[in-house]
Structures are given as C-alpha cells and as structure tokens.
Amino acid sequence: xxxxxxxxxxxxxxxxxxxxxxxxxxxxxxxxxxxxxxxxxxxxxxxxxxxxxxxxxxxxxxxxxxxxxxxxxxxxxxxxxxxxxxxxxxxxxxxxxxxxxxxxxxxxxxxxxxxxxxxxxxxxxxxxxxxxxxxxxxxxxxxxxxxxxxxxxxxxxxxxxxxxxxxxxxxxxxxxxxxxxxxxxxxxxxxxxxxxxxxxxxxxxxxxxxxxxxxxxxxxxxxxxxxxxxxxxxxxxxxxxxxxxxxxxxxxxxxxxxxxxxxxxxxxxxxxxxxxxxxxxxxxxxx
Length: 287
What we know:
Elements: E1 14-18, H1 24-28, E2 37-40, H2 50-62, E3 65-68, H3 82-95, E4 99-103, E5 106-108, E6 113-118, H4 124-140, E7 144-148, H5 163-174, E8 177-181, H6 182-191, H7 196-202, E9 208-213, E10 216-220, E11 223-226, H8 236-247, E12 251-254, H9 263-281
Parallel strand pairs: 1-2, 1-12, 2-3, 3-4, 4-7, 7-8, 8-9, 9-12
Antiparallel strand pairs: 5-6, 10-11
Helix pairs in contact: 4-5, 7-8, 8-9
C-alpha cells in the first residue's frame, strides 16, 4: 500500500524522485522503501492518453504523486491561461497531490511559450505583480499552491531587492507557499559570488512545503548552469541539511531530467538525502 503525503506542509519527511519516462521501468522495479513519492509535470500528461497514461496509472498505483509545473509564467505580463489553470486543478484532483507548484519567473508572451524559466526584476512593483498572480492561481486550484525560487545567470539593473527579500515579499503578500530549491540557491550564490547559507537564512523557509535538489553543469570558472542533468554537487548536501533544519519535515525531491546515470547512482543520491533526514529528524520517512 502506498503511503499518503499530508496536505499542505507535510507532517513527515519523505524522499522522492522525478518521474521521467526514461526511468519508468526502474521506478516500477525499485525495491520497497527506496522511493516515497514521485513528482511530475502535469503539462506533459493533460489531454494525453495512450501508452503513457497507462504507464502513469501503474506508477501512481504504487507511489503518491506531487505535481510541479512550468507554464504559468507567474512573473509575466500576458494574461493567465485560464484553461491551463482549470486543467491543472482537474489533474491535481485526479492524482491526489497535496499541493501544486510552479516557478517565480516568466516563460511566455502574448502568443508564444518560450520553454524557458526566465528571471524577473527584483522590485517592489514586480513582487506585487507576481503576488497578485499567485493569489489568482491559488484561488482557482483545489490544493495549495507553491512557488519555486529559480536559478539565474544575470541580474536586471532595475532590481532593488535581493532574491530572498523578493520571494518573501511575493509569498507574504500572496499568503503563499514556497518550493525551496537548494540547488538553485547554490547556483545563484556561485554565479553572483554570494554566500549560499546567507541566502538560505533569508529565504521564507517557514512557508516551505517541499524541497528540490539537483545537479548543475559548470560552463566556466564564473558560470554554472542548472541543468538537472548532472550528479548533485557535494556543496548541496550541507545546504540541504541546513534547509531541513529551517523548514521542518517536508518532502525532498531528487530532480534528474536527462543524461541519466545508472539507477544505482540515483539510488545512492536518494540514500544521501535519507541520511541527512535521519541526522536532522532522527527518523526514516513513513511508508
């Protein structure tokens, strides 16, 4: 029997893996107790049937699902996509996810989706604009809605707030929730020569309902890129431990989107997350 994740802020620490089609067979064949939940992007499954709907049904019969999207363009100026929001709500009810999440970015214009998670200027006005859209989305969904901090590689000259202050403004004004990506914190700290632990300390961790960890690729001495296609950097693990001490017990997801290693390597990273959870909370995730 699959376990249930509590709605809103989870009462238990849990360790999950992103559901990717290339990993389907390994995920279904994984030993009991390795994976507590799966996360997936509804945009890849809404209005799609056939073989992959059948396979997703097999995965969801064994594991609880969390949904995490990439299309709402919360920082954009184009009108929110009402049909998409309705579809996300229906999918959330169908899968039983305790919350849905998307990114603190813009990703579409009036007539096109850019397939990129682009950062926004960190200003008071921008925070008010995003908070209004977050409230709008949250009011239309049947589950809690969380916003993820994103990686970036340049800053807008008009920015007047730090990233933690911007996220705090957005979530406090929207009375919203945080999906805390600790890899993105490290990426931004490395790219802008900042202290990742100071960034983390100033993030609104009390609003976190979930955490992401992933890997990045070093493009040059001064630039690292969040790819989700590399092993988790060793510097992420102590940052994750500190994050869990600040958020309390929430689900932690290992993201891997491409360039997949052997499943045993992914299992080792899942094991590293579990070991950190044991240190922080002194318990195994409930199954």
